[in-house]
Write a structure and sequence with these properties.
mainly alpha; 5% strand; 8 helices; two-stranded parallel ribbon; 249 residues
């Protein structure tokens, strides 16, 4: 049986090898951007970029390896849940209700995605955000599949760990619901600091909404669907719209 002390230690370990480490790197990246001679809005934050310029097969291999390594902490969470007599089903990361999860996720993606785009453009024009470049991959046959896999990886990693797992463990520690949601949202915002203050605030707001919905639904899958759809549209849509519209940086 997990004691409160072991739960706290477990949370620290999980985040030390996953999104907590990303938050630390993100903070250092933001400091670097703020101390650079250029304004934030003329600096770039590339989300999915080439890893081997001019070598497409090596680039593809590195992309797939990076995606696999990045999602590995989800396996750690599944193992830790199993060790405590639970499973991914405990946090609603399963396929028990695919139709309902897809519907909820799609509706959530439509609302959050549209609002998030407007907020990003406002933050960018206000000079508090970097120019976020979702895709800087070569024009190869595997470009779109890799972007879709990257969107799925983001959705699974973030929602399983920062929504389902963290909120489940904090509930076991008897945290007040809104304190737990606020903590989860702060963590989500912190590993997006590399995008600038707009990225932090936007993802903080998303975290508050997603956290509250997890507490209400008890399911991670709708959040995974929503997050994956939001990122997929951003990654693939950027390539389709780049240079064709004037409102996109």
């Amino acid at each position: 049986m997990l004691t409160p002390r072991l739960i706290r230690a477990e949370i620290l370990v999980v985040f030390a090898v996953s999104l907590g480490a990303s938050a630390l790197r993100s903070l250092v990246s933001l400091i670097g951007s703020l101390t650079a001679p250029k304004e934030l809005k003329v600096q770039h934050a590339v989300l999915v970029g080439t890893m081997a310029p001019g070598r497409p097969w090596l680039d593809l291999t590195l992309q797939l390896v990076d995606l696999a390594v990045a999602v590995a902490p989800v396996a750690l969470v599944a193992y830790l849940l199993a060790r405590s007599g639970e499973s991914p089903r405990t946090i609603g990361a399963d396929l028990r209700a695919p139709g309902r999860d897809l519907l909820r996720g799609a509706l959530l993606a439509a609302v959050v995605g549209g609002t998030g785009l407007v907020f990003y453009l406002a933050a960018f024009r206000a000079g508090v955000n970097l120019d976020v470049v979702p895709d800087r991959l070569p024009d190869a046959w595997w470009r779109v599949p890799v972007l879709l896999l990257a969107a799925l990886q983001n959705g699974v990693l973030e929602e399983v760990i920062v929504s389902g797992y963290l909120l489940h463990r904090l509930a076991e520690l008897r945290w007040r619901p809104w304190h737990a949601v606020a903590t989860s949202a702060l963590v989500r915002g912190s590993y997006h600091l590399y995008q600038g203050f707009g990225g932090f605030v936007g993802n903080l707001a998303m975290g508050l909404l997603f956290g509250r919905l997890y507490q209400r639904w008890g399911r991670t899958m709708p959040l995974i669907v929503a997050h994956t759809l939001i990122d997929a549209v951003a990654f693939v849509g950027y390539g389709l719209l780049r240079g064709r519209v004037t409102w996109l940086p």
